[in-house]
Amino acid sequence: MPRNDAYGYAVARIRALEAGLFDAPRLQRMIDADGLDAALKILAESDYARWMTEGARYDSALEAELRATFDEFAAFVPDRELIDVFRIPYDFHNVKVLLKGAFKARAGGKKRYDLLTRLGSVPADDLVSRVESEEYGLLPWGLSVLLPSCASMWEQSADIVEIERVLDGGMFDAIVSLASSLGFPGVISWARARIDSENIRNLLRMKRFGFDSSTAASFLHGGGTVAVSALLPLMSDQFDAWGRSLAYSDVGMAISATEGSGDFDELMPALERALDDFCSAAVANARYSASAPENVTAFLWGKEMEIKNIRTILVSKAVHAAKTDREGVKGMMRRGYFG
Fold this sequence. Notes:
By secondary structure, the protein is an all-alpha fold. 62% of the residues lie in helices and 0% in strands.
């Protein structure tokens, strides 16, 4: 059976699940809500209600909903790797938390197990056990090699920024490698778009802090649609020119919309939204197919964007209890699954 034919049932399940996703009107209701409690009441009218127990933090409810989505998809998607490409970043997040905790403990500090997430492909308890016992051999995603290397780097230089850089590189390598092994064009395009997006973010941050291109090179990741060698010259240009310089690429077209957005504090949220929407566009057309495996990627990425939108709204309500900048928050909303 052709692999695409195996996805007819999975796509049918996805179509049924679409009804539970947040559309733009529901997000707007949350934005317009009068305070955090009112926004949470709207959230409680949705599938998130099952996680909103008394006294629970809304972050816990958001994570629980995403975890349940991953688990549900794993039960009917023919290729489990399509879910794992989303879990990989959470595995690497947990590794960073554990390494930083171990390094702090050596200096008399405390480990922060509360910062671990249960969204990774490796159960958090198993990861804790393996990292703390230094039994890395069976860890996936190249971590069996990366972790000893990071431990050695800490002993030599105690440079946590360099360790994070190495881990980020390993994470994107793992995502692209796994996506490529599946052979689904849209999934590969989405994975490469994520690298392009991260490279643009890193480039702008480093430009803001005055780094030169030689330093920037080590923080950029290969595997995107735009070569690192083509990105480095942007360090000498104003951001307004980046879109024109990369006009031959999809990511260049995406960031062109953010040109002239003002200072860094205004520019960065606009750029973050544009880059997330750029990744969404990589698999958006899958929704027109009744059998494309990319439907899985489109839904799961849309779910992550939904949760990012909800979190943005709730944080704005919590921080600015007296007066929320509703137009500003609306401008930060990602396109999400429904476009």
